[in-house]
User: Which sequence fits this backbone?
């Protein structure tokens, strides 16, 4: 008998790809960036589909194709999920302690730096008269 | 941004990016506040915010942090983000500013 196409394996693999490539999109919104639950949801969907597909391929190989493809796709999905988790749950939390950063009540260290027009701006100018918010950021690259 | 200017508070951003990069970004994103170029990371170091090797090609950059400094130069609010994926929301800074302005 002709074996059926195991669509769940393909759908699971596509969901894995979507889980990774949609990160850039979801990271534009704080609600899905602060904790990447949308991407994790896609991974859950991916593994459910891959799991169901593997069960069919291995328990009923006479009816369903996909033992080799399913095994490879699942291995790739697991590796991708591992890398994703490592980046988003470990690497982003590796920040220096910055124990020497000015604390509330201390004087802010003065500085003079050029702005985007090339003009030199000093902290003293910025804070006059009502204070200033300083945002130190990693940079756009 | 108008929330800050309505309180008379300036906003300035600091990174190791060059003046040219800052000019391009300010244009593209229509930023009107100063983007300060700390190419040598002198101010970043003075504030102990250096993140060695974390930039592209292992360059030194700043770890993200925000401060509200009042008119007399005193720090009234600090936010050292522990997760670089999480950005400070403006509401946090505004609440700190309001608190500081209520109790100068």
Assistant:
């Amino acid at each position: 008998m002709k074996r059926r196409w195991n669509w769940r394996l393909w759908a699971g693999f596509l969901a894995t790809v979507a889980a990774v490539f949609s990160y850039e999109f979801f990271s534009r919104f704080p609600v899905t960036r602060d904790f990447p639950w949308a991407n994790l949801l896609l991974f859950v969907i991916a593994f459910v589909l891959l799991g169901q597909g593997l069960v069919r391929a291995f328990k009923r190989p006479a009816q369903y194709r996909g033992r080799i493809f399913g095994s490879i796709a699942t291995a790739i999905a697991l590796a991708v999920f591992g890398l994703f988790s490592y980046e988003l749950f470990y690497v982003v939390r590796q920040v220096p302690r910055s124990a020497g950063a000015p604390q509330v009540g201390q004087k802010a260290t003065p500085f003079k730096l050029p702005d985007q027009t090339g003009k030199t701006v000093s902290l003293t100018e910025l804070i006059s008269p009502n204070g200033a918010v300083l945002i130190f950021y990693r940079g756009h690259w | 941004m108008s929330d800050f200017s309505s309180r008379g508070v300036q906003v300035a951003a600091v990174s190791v990016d060059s003046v040219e990069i800052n000019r391009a970004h300010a244009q593209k994103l229509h930023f009107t506040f100063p983007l300060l170029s700390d190419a040598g990371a002198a101010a970043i170091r003075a504030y102990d915010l250096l993140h060695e090797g974390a930039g592209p090609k292992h360059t030194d950059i700043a770890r993200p942090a925000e401060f509200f400094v009042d008119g007399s130069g005193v720090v009234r609010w600090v936010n050292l983000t522990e997760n670089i994926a999480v950005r400070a929301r403006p509401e946090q800074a505004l609440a700190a500013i309001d608190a500081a302005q209520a109790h100068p």
Notes: The first strand of chain B starts at residue 10 and ends at 15.
